[in-house]
Amino acid sequence: MAGAPLSGLCALCASADRDIIQSQSLALLNRDQACGIDFSVCRTCGHIQQWPPVAPDLMAHHYRSFATYEEFGDAPRLRAAPPSRHAARFLKLATEIGLSAGRAYEVGCASGAMLHQFRSRGWQVQGCDPSPSAISQAAAIFGIDADLGDEESALPRQRDLDLILACHVLEHLYDPHAALARFHAALAHGGHLILEVPCATTPERLPPGWFTFEHLHYYQSGVLEGLLSDAGFEVVQTRIDTVSEHYPVMAIAARKFQDKPQDKLQVRRHRDPAAGLHLAHSYAARDKLLWTATSLRLACVQEPVFLYGAGIHTAQLLDHTGIASNVIAIADRDSKKWGQTQA
Ligand SMILES: [Zn+2]
Questions:
Q1: 61 within 8 A of 50, measured Cβ to Cβ
Q2: Of the candidates 64, 22, 19, which has an alpha carbon nearest to the alpha carbon of residue 43?
Q3: pLDDT tens for residues 293-303?
Q4: How many angstroms is it from 7 CA to the middle of ligand 1?
Q5: What residues flank ion ligand 1 with Cβ within 5 A?
Q6: With contact defined as beta carbons under 8 Å apart, do 154 and 166 qualify?
Q7: pLDDT tens by residue, 152-187
Q8: Where are the domains of the chain?
Q9: Are 116 and 209 in contact (CB under 8 A)?
């Protein structure tokens, strides 16, 4: 299965049979050419994904320029802040499944705010993140020494971890099978993984613009549980929360229960292409209607427009509506974006 995501096959089952459900053309920072992306559903396993995914070098450009996941505010205030909504969900899940403090490692730890919360509850904490600015902030704000790099480079150096945390990470990874195998190898026997991803659920609950540049995967609960089971994990708890964020999220706590991941053929047991196809097509139809309504509203605007926020959702707005010709400037609080060009 390794290599399937970039070879034009389904990232989960390596099938070549897909329905394209939405295409986007996105204006990135400092790129003359818009980036075309197809979002598809696999007709064999039902998994919804970018297919083929955005090229890795373009994605790396995006993480350097657009999405840097930094904290804003002064250090003493950030240290004293209560857990974020995400961290609170992770802490609650860890408590409710009865975990006692041990060695925790967060994949994609950003500036270390969640690790800071786990450490205050007795955990020894470490983490990794591919963003140099986030790693500097983790050290400067929280005194957390995180590894610079993604899970692929950092996790193989870890062994016998009691807990791996992955908050909104798995939807960004090109090869989830390979990543989960690395998570499995880095955990102690009986160690736990807690992860959270956007949840592909009832289309009425999903916001406009839900298919986005940096999300390669759109997990349905059955698909993700099957993926974990195939990787040698036992799902302990699955929670779908449709109210706390502006899109549904799914948190799963899973326990390493086997020394070796199962044969990949087991994936077939979890396949439910009809559910995935129905969900993907219903959402795409709804998203199209929502953007049409937005476009009609914006068509009445004659005055010059000042946009707040240089990012992927602005790129979607420019793609789906005719507002671009009225825009005179875009503002953003992130000084790294100042002076750059979008579209
Ligand atoms: Zn598939």
A1: no
A2: 19
A3: 988 999 998 89
A4: 13
A5: 10, 12-13, 15, 42, 44-45, 47
A6: no
A7: 999 999 999 999 999 999 999 999 999 999 999 999
A8: 75-265
A9: no
